Amino acid sequence: MKWITRERPKIDRLACPWLIKRFVDAEAVFMYVPADQVMSRAAAEGATPFDMVGVEYTHYDDQCTFDYVIKKHHIEDPAVHIMAPIVRGADTDRHDLASQASGLWALSAGLAYNEPDDQALLEKGMMLYDALYSWAKYLQHVKHTQQPVENQLIDIFKQFLQQEKDNKKIPSWARELKEIIQDQVDTNLNLSLKGLSETLQVHPAYLSREFSKYFDDLSFGEYIRKLRIDKAVQLLSSTDHSLTEIAYLTGFSDQSHFTRIFKKFTGKSPSAYKKDMIKSKK
Predict the structure, then answer these.
(1) What's the pTM?
(2) How many separate domains does the chain show?
(3) Does residue 20 sit in the same domain as residue 124?
(4) 116 and 42, same structural domain?
(5) The domain containing residue 134 runs over which residues?
(6) Coil, helix or strand for 157?
(7) Distance between CA atoms of 30 and 84, rounded to whole angstroms?
(8) 8 A C-beta contact, residue 104 and residue 87
């Protein structure tokens, strides 16, 4: 059976081929093509698309495609179920799900960086997941450090990691997303969650669910509207543009829509807000 997905695989697009070849179809063939060619090539080749939005083999809720393959094909192997949260955590940037998730992401990103050929990358990925499977099946309780002093150092390090976790640091994708939005909100009035998720290589469902945690407790749409209102306030105070012009410059469909959202965020209409600013200056 043929399978097809986006080029330049890292986590799910390497883990799923390993899972399928080891537990579903040993003769399976995998193809990596540009994202905009996946569906047309799938139809032409009679291949099953995977890890793409809108296809059967993809993410559901907080589960990644690796989880779906396990469920779809009733894979009961205990070692595979130990691997699942590691793969899911690495693929969705939820490294809290398993302590090995960040390591899997680091190795996968490094492999992809070093190997430009996707088929060669798949071969190396198969070795990586064979190794992870062997650890999960035979070695997960074996410790590298055996001396008492070493164990004390490990315990101290674990406490340090827990303190770092308790600090609830903002993940790298959230920092990068904030910079992207800030850079583009003035010039790109059609920012979309889907487009940003592709830029960040973070699944849109995960991005949508996690967004409010790191962006003032606002949804993606609310946050973008807030930035546009902030821009409108700046234009009201520093230019002589009409309200219709400001509505256009900040990405609102018309003045009435602009007025309604502005009042929701500031408690005043744009005209009343501008009058109050003029009074305060005087």
Answers:
(1) 0.54
(2) 2
(3) yes
(4) yes
(5) 2-139
(6) helix
(7) 21
(8) yes
Q: Which two tokens stand for residue 28?
A: 């399976």
Question: Are residues 208 and 112 part of one domain?
Answer: no
Enumerate the β-bridge partners of residue 57.
Answer: 50
For tokens 């410059």, name the residue.
249
Could you report how far apart the first and last alpha carbons of the chain are, in Å? 76
118 and 178 share one domain? no
* pLDDT per position as a tens digit, 43-60: 999 999 999 999 999 999
Residue 24: pLDDT band by 50, 70, 90 thresholds? very high
Q: What CA–CA distance (Å, rounded) separates 144 from 56?
A: 41
Q: Do 61 and 134 lie in a common domain?
A: yes
Predicted pLDDT at 8: 96
Last residue of a domain, one of 81, 116, 139: 139
Residue 183 maps to which CATH number? 1.10.10.60
* Residue type (1 letter), 58: T
Alpha carbon separation from 75 to 24, 70, 209 (Å, rounded): 9, 5, 28
Domain annotation covers residue 156: no
Nearest to 102 by CA among 11, 176, 196: 11
- pLDDT tier at 40 (50, 70, 90 boundaries)? very high
Count Cβ atoms within 10 A of the Cβ of residue 250 and give its class: 0-12 exposed, 13-18 middle, 19 or more buried: buried
CA angle at residue 90 from 85 to 92, to 5 degrees? 90
